[in-house]
């Protein structure tokens, strides 16, 4: 992409105010301009005759912190801004609030009694809750505790000279406090769109509201730059106008009819929900045959996992966004199999990791029955029990390489159906970890190699939970509606079901739900296909059924 800033974007690049709040609708280039701003900031710093020294006596700071919410959005920022940042990439730390907190806890945790912190994945927390381990939700609060210590404050205050926060409208109270605590004298660049505030009503979220943007706008020292509405994502303006009309509930207005007549928006309805996966696959295939990249959006994690399984059964390969926890769980299970083979751990440990892997494939609160069966908490079918015993017998006493080869095949041999790709990728990674372990111990015996492998897997486990993993180029991404934030694809397929629950809003104008729909419908560059199924749709999405029928 050649990035030539628009006049509004140029103002952002030039602004040197203490706090710069950039407001703009979907696709107006906030994130892209922030990357360009990071580069400009670092270029100015490198050129300055007197280097930027934001705190008297401290060394000049030539690093930028770019904070975002999810690992998926960090991956997207890193991938997309590489070209813009060029040689300055190394000086820009793109990370999530949770990863930043985890790195502070790792470095300074002993100050608050966390000298050997252990982070539980959500699957682990569901299966084996532990009071002495940290959960994801603990990270930001514990980092804030640390930031009460002068040594930690001194470390963070001299680390960055520009701090950027993407999707600022969705920061919760803890995240906002974290930004202010780490900032020191750094310039703050906050990117937001109150119309895209979609976390306000999620459970366990405290303080998210469009009001946060208003509060900062009126804060002393803030310069607010509003980008004009023109979207770079779809320069024709047709999809952005339709998305804005959906947000305003103008389903019968000209923006929607223009998009439908021009083919940028297609809406279908099938009262019988049993053909969902086939219809999704058909839509995806038709879009792909037009050379378009595709993302599939669906509500509810459990329904999304079910759709994913069905799509896989009918041969539509895809990646579920934000489920890299499964990859980590698969590596852990395979490493445990190698350890069991060499007599370093019990079979019970292998079963525990296998249960965690199976649980990690499922979103939501539920633990799958199969995980309980693996752990012996529920009776397993004779066939599945036999397969487990066969695997155990085959692994027993094997050498490390052959054990990992058996582990690679275990997914198919056990007849598991979910997360085939994660298991296969894990096998490749586990083999290279084994080589790395061998290099580290220079010809040590198997036990020494396994101890090194354990350390490598351990570092990987924390890293996977908090760091980003790039998504494979060109893969079809399947995600829930809340994860669509900040994403884009040539075409999107939006699945809306009669039994989807959109919260307790029951009357027009569905303010909260409409912000979610605005995000969802503003992601496509060229086309959006809506597939509605079943009956009794929530009032929020019922107009789509009407659009399909009329
Ligand atoms: N000046 C520009 N010239 C060309 N393309 C641009 C420009 N600015 C942004 N874009 C492109 O427009 C698209 C949207 O940009 P970006 O994701 O930065 O917008 P955003 O405001 O952060 O969007 P959203 O709020 O929807 O996440 C991207 O594909 C980006 O590369």
TrEMBL record:
Residue ranges crossing the lipid bilayer per the database entry: none
Keywords associated with the record: ATP-binding, Helicase, Hydrolase, Nucleotide-binding
Cross-referenced PANTHER family: ATP-DEPENDENT DNA HELICASE SRS2, UVRD / RECB / PCRA DNA HELICASE FAMILY MEMBER
Binding residues for ATP: 24-31
Protein name: AAA family ATPase
InterPro entries according to UniProt: DNA_helicase_UvrD/REP, P-loop_NTPase, UvrD-like_ATP-bd
Superkingdom of origin organism: Bacteria
């Amino acid at each position: 992409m050649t990035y030539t800033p628009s006049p509004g974007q140029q103002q952002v690049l030039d602004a040197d105010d203490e706090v710069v709040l950039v407001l703009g609708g979907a696709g107006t280039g906030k994130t892209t301009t922030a990357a360009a701003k990071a580069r400009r900031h670092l270029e100015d710093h490198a050129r300055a005759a007197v280097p930027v020294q934001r705190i008297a006596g401290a060394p000049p700071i030539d690093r930028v912190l770019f904070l975002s919410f999810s690992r998926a959005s960090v991956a997207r920022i890193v991938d997309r801004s590489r070209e813009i940042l060029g040689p300055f990439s190394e000086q820009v730390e793109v990370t999530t609030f949770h990863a930043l907190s985890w790195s502070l806890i790792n470095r300074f945790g002993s100050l608050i009694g966390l000298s050997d912190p252990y982070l539980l994945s959500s699957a682990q927390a569901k299966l084996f809750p532990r009071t002495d381990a940290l959960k994801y939700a603990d990270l930001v609060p514990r980092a804030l505790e640390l930031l009460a210590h002068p040594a930690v404050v001194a470390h963070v205050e001299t680390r960055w000279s520009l701090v950027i926060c993407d999707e600022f409208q969705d920061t919760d109270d803890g995240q906002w406090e974290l930004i202010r605590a780490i900032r020191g004298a750094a310039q703050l660049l906050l990117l937001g769109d109150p119309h895209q505030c979609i976390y306000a009503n999620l459970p366990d979220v405290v303080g998210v509201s469009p009001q946060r943007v208003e509060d900062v706008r009126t804060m002393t020292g803030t310069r607010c730059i509003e980008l004009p509405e023109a979207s770079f994502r779809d320069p024709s303006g047709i999809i952005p106008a339709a998305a804005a009309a959906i947000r305003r509930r103008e389903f019968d207005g000209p923006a929607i009819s223009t998009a439908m007549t021009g083919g940028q928006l297609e809406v279908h309805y099938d009262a019988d929900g049993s053909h969902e996966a086939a219809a999704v696959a058909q839509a995806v295939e038709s879009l792909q045959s037009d050379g378009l990249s595709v993302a599939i959006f669906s509500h509810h994690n459990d329904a999304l996992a079910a759709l994913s399984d069905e799509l896989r059964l009918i041969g539509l390969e895809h990646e579920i966004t934000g489920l890299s926890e499964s990859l980590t769980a698969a590596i852990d299970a395979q490493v445990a199999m190698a350890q069991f083979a060499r007599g370093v751990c019990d079979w019970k440990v292998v079963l525990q990791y296998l249960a965690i892997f199976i649980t990690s494939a499922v979103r939501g609160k539920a633990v799958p029955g199969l995980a309980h069966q693996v752990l012996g908490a529920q009776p397993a079918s004779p066939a599945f029990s036999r397969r487990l015993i066969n695997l155990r017998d085959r692994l027993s006493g094997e050498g490390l390489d052959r054990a990992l080869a058996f582990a690679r095949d275990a997914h198919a041999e056990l007849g598991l159906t979910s997360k085939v790709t994660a298991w296969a990728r894990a096998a490749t990674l586990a083999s290279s970890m084994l080589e790395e372990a061998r290099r580290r111990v220079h010809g040590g015996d198997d036990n020494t190699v396994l101890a090194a492998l354990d350390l490598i897997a351990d570092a990987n486990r924390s890293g996977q939970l908090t760091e980003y993993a790039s998504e494979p180029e060109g893969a079809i991404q399947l995600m829930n509606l809340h994860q669509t934030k900040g994403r884009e694809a040539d075409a999107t397929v939006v699945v809306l079901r009669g039994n989807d629950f959109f919260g307790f809003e029951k009357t027009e104008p569905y303010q909260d739900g409409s912000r979610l729909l605005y995000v969802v419908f503003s992601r496509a560059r060229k086309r959006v296909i809506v597939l509605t199924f079943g009956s009794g749709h929530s009032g929020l999405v019922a107009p789509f059924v009407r659009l399909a029928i009329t």
